Amino acid sequence: MTWIANAYAKINLGLHVLERLPTGYHRIETGFCFLEWNDRYEVVPSQQYKLSLTDSSIEADDTNLITRAYHAFDRYVGLNQHYTFSVTKNIPAGAGLGGGSSNAALTLRMLNYLEEAGLTDDELIDLSRDLGADVPFFVKGKPGIGTGLGQDIEPLDIQPDAWIVAIYPGFESSTAEAYTNCIPNPNPDFLIKSVLLEEDLDQWQYLLVNDLEPPVIARNELIGNIKDQMQEFGAEYAAMSGSGSTVFGIFSQDFVAINAYESFHKLGFSANLTRPGFKPDYGIYRKDG
């Protein structure tokens, strides 16, 4: 029996770095929403755990978040049998899209389903605490506001009712470096939650900021160039996602978004186009045949 499911990417709608904690982590506020950019899982029962990835540049060893999530589930819950995970990687790594965290969350959800363990989302989140700050968002599977270390998620309907074009510039961005070079601001002018819930899309460019963007763009000029191009193509709002390196633009009109997507694609960039109001399919299905 083969089981299939999809792990989806995210973008950050604004990101405030509020405080640098003694632990080295940071207190933040950010808006999470989904892209139609996804990795595809095929999982089969097997005698022992095995992970196969289509992207050879990503290590399929004990450092991989899929493997770490698998062992965390086995350690805290226990497995009645083992599984082979074959993952078609489409979400670029080190891109600010949460691909690794999304993979970890789906691994936990699939094991919970296949093992009929009956864990709640909150229990799966407890399992994921050491895996990554974005994992709880992907476990919940709904857009929302992330606070604290980004792990405290308030589900809210903030998925834009507009087209999203996301562009990966072809290189990774260091999360640690982005935070190291950022100056925390404990008192931002506008709360991200308020902007996303109360302001129209055409106001976001004036109110919604990613505090990690300036230091990252200072070291990676192409990210800034792509953001500028996105606005020239007609995006109502354009920004870097998370700690980079992906840049996204939000467009009200479909033909404008499609033109931007196709233009970047022709230039050789990895690109994604997400429909208005997109909702990820979090189903786990049996594969026919």
Polypeptide structure, described:
This protein is α+β, with helices and mostly antiparallel strands and 289 residues long. It has two domains: 3-157, Ribosomal Protein S5, domain 2; 163-274, 2-Layer Sandwich (Alpha-Beta Plaits). It has ten helices and eleven strands. Strands 1, 2, 3, 4, 5, 6 and 11 form a seven-stranded mixed β-sheet that branches. Strand 1 (3-20) and strand 2 (26-46) form a beta hairpin. The chain is globular and about 55 Å long. The model has no long low-confidence stretch (mean pLDDT 96).
Supply database-style keywords.
10 helices, globular, 289 residues, 7-stranded mixed beta sheet, Ribosomal Protein S5, domain 2, 28% strand, 4-stranded antiparallel beta sheet, alpha+beta, Alpha-Beta Plaits, 11 strands, 2 domains
Give me the secondary-structure category: alpha+beta
CATH class placement of the largest domain: Alpha Beta
Task: List segments where confidence is low: pLDDT < 50 over at least 5 consecutive residues.
Answer: none
Please estimate the helix content.
25-40%
Taken as a percent bin, the fraction of beta residues is 25-35%
On the 0 to 100 scale, the average pLDDT is: 96
- How many beta-strand runs? 11
Question: What is the CATH topology classification name of the largest domain?
Answer: Ribosomal Protein S5, domain 2
Number of helices: 10
Number of separate domains: 2
Please name the CATH architecture of the largest domain: 2-Layer Sandwich
Largest sheet: 7 strands, mixed
Q: In sequence order, what are the helices and strands, one letter per element? A: EEEHEHHHEEEHHHHHEEHEE
Global geometry: globular
Radius of gyration: 19 Å
N-to-C span: 9 Å
